[in-house]
Each structure stands twice: as structure tokens, then as C-alpha cells.
Amino acid sequence: MLSYLHSYHAGNRADLHKHRALVGLLTLLTVKPRPITYMETHAGRGLYDLASPEAEKTGEARDGIERLLELAGSSGNDPYLEAVRDARQRHGPTFYPGSPWIAWHLLRAEDSLHLMERHPGEFPALKRALRGSGAHMHHRDGYEGVLALSPPTPRRGMVLIDPSYEVKDEYQQVARFIPALHRKWPEAVVLLWYPLLAEGRHEAMLAQLSKADLPQTEIHETLFPAPGKGMLGSGLFLVNKPFGYKLDQVPHWAR
Questions:
Q1: Rg of the chain over all Cα atoms, to the nearest angstrom
Q2: Beta-bridge mates of residue 237
Q3: Cα–Cα distance for residue pair 26/107, rounded to 1 Å
Q4: What CA–CA distance (Å, rounded) separates 209 from 202?
Q5: CA dihedral sign of residues 133, 134, 140, 144
Q6: Which residues, other chains included, contact 29 with Cβ-Cβ below 8 Å and sequence gap of 6+?
Q7: What is the pLDDT along the chain (255 residues), one digit of tens a residue?
Q8: Would the pTM of this model clear 0.70, i.e. be above it?
């Protein structure tokens, strides 16, 4: 099933939670001069127009990135907001960068970028969004693709796992994938995003992962206002947390 489109939800509070964590991790990983490899299992289209009919239909970005930009103004040195502003400078004032674009913005010429996207409509959009970037874009199943390329060269690096969870089995698939990835590529920093739903479907996944003896794991969950209406919040599961990393908290108004 490939019906999910992130265009409806781009720039919402879950994106803020996930992308601020991604920026913090990549900023730390690129401090040293040694190159890294960055991979994604579910890259999406890479760049989203918040003026599109899909984004306008939900209006979720208005309570997410648009509100954050309004409150932040032009002050401060925030690499996440700098990435958003750079995307808008290049593509237009209504655009929001997905994680592949943010990663490209932060990575250096010597780093390697591999993006997996299986959706037949999203993959061509991903190629357009990152045309000329030097990214390796793969039209294939993300779990299979990342495992096939692991361990990569260079071996330092990171994997972002950001499924749609549109099928219930996705939680079990993730719980099997992360230990398998760690066995093949033990050095990889792994960041998993998952939704907090009333049904608590993520709980069995986290319980299974806790039995996998993964190193330096950390869980960070944040609740959104108006509980009981769709997604209650957003969760992150981190493996191989880099030394000195601390998740940049979601702004106070989003808690």
C-alpha cells in the first residue's frame, strides 16, 4: 500500500520534532573532517510547497513551521531555521524542505547521500528537488535498499527511518530492521521517527527494540495539543547517540 502522501502534513509539529533532531545529529557528525554516509529509508519528495492544495487542506504547517518562523523572526543562529530559509530563498517563500533536502544542505562535498523512495509519484519529485545535488537516489524498498548498501564507505554515518506506518505491520518491520541494520553497520547512528496514536501501536515496537541490546539508545517523545484528535504526538528512537548530543527541544509553544 502506497497511498500516504506527506504533502498533507509537511511542516507540521511532527516535522519540527524530527527535523530539529536530524539537524542536531548531522551538525555533530560533520564537525570532524572525516566524511560520513547518510541514508534514508523513506525519503519522500524532498521539497514541499505549503501553498499546494494538499497542504492547504490540512493547514498543519500554520501551527508548525509558519508559527515558529513568525516567533523566531530573523534573530538567532538556528541551523534548522537556516535550512528552511535557504530552501525558500532558492525555491520560493511557501516551500518547506523535507529531510533529504535538509541533509543535503548540511552535508559537505566529501560526504555521501543515499535516498530510498518506493512511491511511483514521489520518486520523480525527489529527483527534481535534488537535481544536481550529487545524491544517490534509489527507486526501491527502503529497508531492502539500506541493508543492501550496508556497511557503506565511508562507514561513519547515519540512517533516518521515517515510515508512513500506513499498515500496522510497519511497526514490526521496523523492529526487525533496526537490529539487522546494526549487525551489518554497527557504527551507524540510527534515528527512527514514529507517531504517538491513541491505540499505542508503537509500544510493542519499542518493547521489541529494547530486547535487541542496541548501544546508546534514547527515546524522546513530545505530545501535541488537543489530544484525541488524530496523532497525539511524535516519538524519536535513537541508536548510537553521538557524544555530546542533546535533542534541541521543541519550542515551548509546541508542547
A1: 17
A2: 192, 219
A3: 8
A4: 11
A5: negative
A6: 36, 156, 157, 158, 189, 242
A7: 566 788 889 999 999 999 999 999 999 999 999 999 999 999 999 999 999 999 999 999 998 999 999 888 766 688 999 999 999 999 999 999 999 999 999 999 999 999 999 999 999 999 999 999 999 999 999 999 999 999 999 999 999 999 999 888 999 999 999 999 999 999 999 999 999 999 999 999 999 999 999 999 999 999 887 554 678 999 999 999 999 898 765 454 444
A8: yes
Task: Give yes or no: 213 in active site.
Answer: no
Nearest by Cα to 65 from 17, 118, 116, 121: 17
222 DSSP β-pair partners: 234
Question: Is the distance from CB of 158 to CB of 127 less than 8 angstroms?
Answer: no
What cell does 105 get? 544542505
Instruction: Spot the catalytic one: 111, 162, 213, 248.
Output: 162
Residue 5: C-alpha distances to residues 2, 186, 250 (Å): 8, 32, 24
